[in-house]
Design a protein that fits this description.
Blueprint (H helix, E strand, L loop, with lengths): L1 E5 H11 L14 E7 L2 E7 L3 E8 L1 E4 L1 E6 H8 L6 E8 L2 E6 L2 E8 L14 E6 H9 L16 E7 L2 E7 L3 E8 L2 E2 L3 E6 H10 L6 E6 L3 E6 L2 E6 L18 E6 H15 L6 E7 L2 E7 L4 E7 L1 E4 L2 E6 H8 L6 E6 L6 E5 L5 E5 L7
Helix pairs in contact: 1-2, 5-6
Length: 367
């Protein structure tokens, strides 16, 4: 193999694919980046068998061929060559020569035959939507995915496609985040559970909000291609929790509140609440005011926030993290907050429409 390419293109490609590098020492080749020179392109691939990222760039191919180079060191090295023309050559199976300016370096390689091949024939189902809409529904759900390995099915986001809409749902046992958006095309009604890591890597690939993104998948594999980069990921297999049964439909208290005002108040209260193990922030709602309270050994906060209120007075407490994380990503000016009792789930919805829903469980407190 022998090619000449632009250092910036090479560095950008290596940066993208390196997100899928394996870290397990049991199979050293998974710590490598596969390079294949053919025609007038150089293709780079990295995989940990769960996630695969492939990027193709233009190159002057002097000799076709393939090799696998140690990923971490190659990535760090080529980042220093962004302003250079780079020549890569692998005359020997276990050695890659890197020429730039008047310099030359060598790096150890693996045999390309050891690198796992990925099947890209993934076209059983698909949906198409604007990149901006995809980003929004991921941002509004992925933060609520579980980090607990004992419940792996909850480490992903459920995507349900029906009636030309996609509904994305994530939950971790303490909260549930749901977001909806329109799709411009889909093959059939379908559902898939996409790992949170995969979603974050897809987000990094998206560059133009107005462009459309096509997501294709079969029973256990997903594929996305955009801007010369292809991402392939395993889907999470199993039965997702029946989230519709968790969401209450009737409430005794309904509030309309300004998002920025509430977020700022809760953020201030959480500064003191953090000294407490559970980081509790309390809402005391009465007479068209919501008092945001926090108390700890460090001090206390008691701030009134104006609300439009219908229904009964209520005092309810939350882990401040679960409130602030959601309020930071809401783009609406106002939201509705629905409550039933100090021990029942709180529901947050938009004032108009049904683009999102957030459910959070309260913390039990002494009266």
């Amino acid at each position: 193999m022998k090619i000449i390419c632009d250092g910036l293109d090479l560095s950008d490609a290596v940066l993208k694919v390196s997100k899928a590098l394996g870290v397990k020492k049991t199979n050293p080749v998974l710590e490598g980046i596969y390079l294949k020179a053919k025609g007038d392109t150089l293709t780079l691939v990295a995989t940990d068998t769960e996630l695969t990222i492939e990027k193709t760039i233009r190159a002057e191919v002097l000799m076709e061929g393939e090799t696998v180079v140690t990923g971490k060191f190659f990535a760090e090295f080529v980042k220093k060559l962004e302003n250079e023309q780079v020549e890569l050559s692998a005359a020997e199976e276990n050695q890659l020569k890197i020429k730039y300016s008047d310099s030359e370096s060598e790096m150890q390689c693996f045999s390309a035959e050891e690198f796992p091949r990925t099947d890209k024939k993934i076209n059983d189902n698909f949906f198409v939507m604007k990149q901006s809409d995809f980003k929004r529904i991921v941002n509004m759900t992925v933060f609520a995915c579980s980090q607990d390995d004992s419940r792996p099915i909850l480490k992903g986001v459920l995507f349900e496609i029906a009636n030309a809409r996609v509904t994305a749902v994530a939950l971790d046992g303490f909260r549930l985040a749901l977001a909806r958006a329109n799709v411009s095309g889909f093959s059939a009604e379908m559902k898939a559970i996409i790992p949170s890591r995969t979603l974050m890597e897809i987000m990094r690939l998206l560059e133009k909000d107005e462009d459309e993104l096509k997501v294709t998948f079969n029973k256990n594999t997903l594929m996305v291609s955009t801007n010369g980069t292809t991402l392939i990921s395993r889907l999470l297999e199993g039965e997702f929790i029946n989230y519709k049964q968790i969401i209450p439909s009737e409430f005794v208290t309904n509030l309309r509140v300004n998002v920025k005002t509430l977020a700022a108040s809760v953020e201030r209260a959480s500064v003191l609440a953090r000294s407490d193990r559970i980081s509790i922030v309390k809402f005391d709602i009465k007479e068209k005011l919501m008092y945001v309270l926090a108390k700890s050994e460090v001090g206390n906060v008691n701030e009134p926030v104006n609300v439009n209120m219908e229904g009964k007075d209520v005092v309810i407490a939350f882990n401040s993290k679960y409130i602030t994380e959601f309020l930071r990503i809401v783009e609406d000016e106002f939201i509705h907050i629905f409550l039933n009792s100090p021990i029942a789930p709180c529901i947050i919805k938009p004032v108009n429409g049904d683009d999102f829903l957030y459910l959070v469980l309260p913390v039990r407190i002494n009266a």
